[in-house]
Amino acid sequence: MLQNDLIIRTLRGEKTERTPVWMMRQAGRYLPEYMALRAKYGFFERCQTPELAAEITLQPVDIVGVDAAILFSDILVVPQAMGLEVELIESKGPNLPEPIKTTADLKRVRVPEVEETLGYVFDAIKLIKQQLNGRVPLIGFAGAPWTLLCYMVQGKGSKTFDEAKIFCYTQPELAHQLLQMITDTTIAYLKGQVKAGADVVQIFDSWGGLLSPADFENFSLKYIRQIVAALKDEVPTIIFAKGAWHSLESMAATGALGLGIDWCITPQLARQMAGNNITLQGNFDPAKLMSPIPVIQKEVKEMLKGFGPGLHIANLGHGILPNVPVDHARAFVDAVKAFTW
Ligand code: CP3
């Protein structure tokens, strides 16, 4: 049914004609077409209106020619569905006015009925699948429980998420209760995405790298493992735990078919740690998309050679930056497509 299933075949470990490519945060502010819709509708309005979410999801497929679409939404729709107020403040980022700090606060959150609270996402997925008409696979996603806890406790973005960490270290029982509630919600949510038509799911643990290896196991991977186990007979899953390269071996053992890596580890070392049976995804430094196009072309080749043929999905090591010229994003994608062994 899919005309381009390079990503699915790569995740399954099959040989493909070339390395597939997509970019994290590929639907976003570097696209003038996205900015035009952003000027007219609020952020969560764009997420909650299936027609808008579908249009934004398809933009990078049409404009830069990536090998997968990723659902336009946000990881913070889950805390919203669990009962917390979440707003996105222009040029400041997410804000949760009443974060979780105490046992009493935890009583304000629940494991919701996902059809009721997140049905708009499932509707968007159905519409996207219709509009894609099999051109490329659709990636669904959710935040990892640890990364969602960071926002639910800290209440806003942070470089260190110290308040979230202190919450975990001083009130571990409460933290584990919250992490389990997020996990249960996420499993139902991702199963709903798959039922609606998502072909692959990615778990974003953007703040996994803030934890020591032992704390990453205890507060993050323990819960990611449950999510992967619940999904693994349905669709391929990809875990992207930024900065948590120390745990690639244990992440590979979860049953996920793909592991995202950032640019702080070489493909060779990542391969050595993750073993030979899992697809690696990454790991171009997003800031390098600001380099002149010939430099991008050269560095893409280096990256592809570093990973070697097969078991690799080309991507950035984190989300694309808002100021990247569209022709640079396209040059990145085209350079991957043009590469032959
Ligand atoms: O990849 C895609 O194109 C799909 C869409 C997507 C968005 N957010 C849209 C978005 C995905 C996969 C996310 C995930 C997400 N959201 C993560 C994990 C990935 C990562 O980058 O680490 C995180 C931590 C968030 C939380 C979040 N949402 C932040 C910190 C911000 C503000 C900072 C920023 O980049 O603007 C958002 C807003 C957001 N989510 C935007 C988009 C396109 C920008 C909104 C706008 O200003 O138009």
Automatic annotation (TrEMBL):
Sequence ranges assigned to domain Uroporphyrinogen decarboxylase (URO-D) in this UniProt record: 20-29
UniProt catalytic activity: uroporphyrinogen III + 4 H(+) = coproporphyrinogen III + 4 CO2
Top-rank taxon, per record: Bacteria
Ranges that cross the membrane: none
NCBIfam families on file: hemE (TIGR01464)
Molecular function terms from GO: uroporphyrinogen decarboxylase activity
Binding site for substrate: 25-29, 44, 74, 151, 206, 318
Protein name: Uroporphyrinogen decarboxylase
Gene that encodes it: hemE
Species per Swiss-Prot/TrEMBL record: Pinibacter soli
Positions marked as site (Transition state stabilizer): 74
Family indicated by similarity: Belongs to the uroporphyrinogen decarboxylase family.
